[in-house]
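Same chain as my last thread, 276 residues:
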Amino acid sequence: MQALQNKTAIVTGAGRGVGLATAQRLSAAGARLVVNDLDEREAGVCVAAIQAAGGDAIACPGDITSTDFPERLIDTALGSYGGIDIVVNNAGYIWNGAIQNHSDEQWQAMLDVHATAPFRILRALAPWLREAAKREQAQLGAASVRKVVNVSSVSGTTGAATQIAYSAGKAAIVGMTKTLAKEWGRYNVTVNCVAFGHIDTRLTQSYSGEPPTISVGERDFRVGLSEQQIESSERASPLGRSGQPEDGAGAIYLLCLPESDFITGEVLTCSGGAQL
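reply #2:
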């Protein structure tokens, strides 16, 4: 039997990069997937790829920062698959600048997507989760083990220049992880966090000259790392290379496996060993 057979997993930001690789990795292990992305087309591409590989997936596109979205996401998973076993809070983006150039809007946007949205999603899950765990305890003697994996960054654990708002949001998810591990242990839920170093995605793409941009909603954001920054990052890694989306997905996958059932409240750094 596959490691995650008959499990249902939600992955936010699964249209590209680490989120896409994670959804595909969990599906390959037997999980049913609820795929979220802000971009409806990219969410559909992810679902189609999973289905083409013989997996089971549905899309729930939408903006995770919208106040009504968390309930819709949870209701979609429950309505389609009848339960939820894994939640991966992965969605996010960067909006960088030195502190003197940070606007209130910029600060709030980073907190909203990296901290408030995951909080709301997990809060929306809580009523069903608590009742399911109590019912399983009464009927079976123990609640099923369920998993939450939050995505942070080394920017949130060690800081990063020009990323004060992003770093604050990524630090907040670490605190949320450790707190919820204590709250939800009684329901047999493990809550852990992966803090990524340099993973090669569109947010960290290499450039020379003017930085590239991505569109989030109606706004464009500068992204990417200069060739010199990437070379410096690779030199800092004992492995001598940048991480790939599949590397990030592998770290998340470890915390979804039954072998990690006694690991909770932890932050796993996935940086190729770089001491940043």
